[in-house]
Write the structure tokens for this entry.
Amino acid sequence: MRFETPKGVSDIWFEEFDRRKWLYSRIEKVLRSYGFAFMEPSPLEYLETLVAKSGPEIEKEIYSFEDKKGEKLALRFDLTVGMARMIASKQLPLPVRAANIGSVWRYDNPQHGRYRWFWQWDAEIFGSSNPASDAEIIAVTCGIMDSAGLKDYTVAMNSRKLIEV
């Protein structure tokens, strides 16, 4: 029996757990102040859902497997796909402000500072094409940085449309 953590995975010990909970509470407080509601997409998705969103190349970057019934499943590699699937499955009035803080998995060759299992936060305004929604996501992000006590940061923006011209 091995008593070590698999390569590319990091156990979360007491002090780190407490620091994370402190940070998550700051993130949640800011997101709720902007009117975001929290949801939790399943950590398991149908492989075809993830491939449809990200293309067949994504299979090389995720954990996927066939279950005992022969269904092809995968661990989520981000939060957006599951949140979008959940929103699409309901007839909700748009726009919808949805948020999550959760763990994700990526099949990767572990290097210093990169892990196969990690946590991320996500905030989405589904159903809005208004540029003000993008500006709000930037404001939320700055609010989270401020709430966490970070003072010296830079917000950089780009546009794929400008780059692809």
Summary: DSSP finds five helices and six strands in the chain. The beta strands are 37-38, 44-46, 64-66, 72-75, 96-105, 117-126. The longest helix spans residues 14-33. The helical segments are 14-33, 47-54, 80-88, 131-147, 160-163.
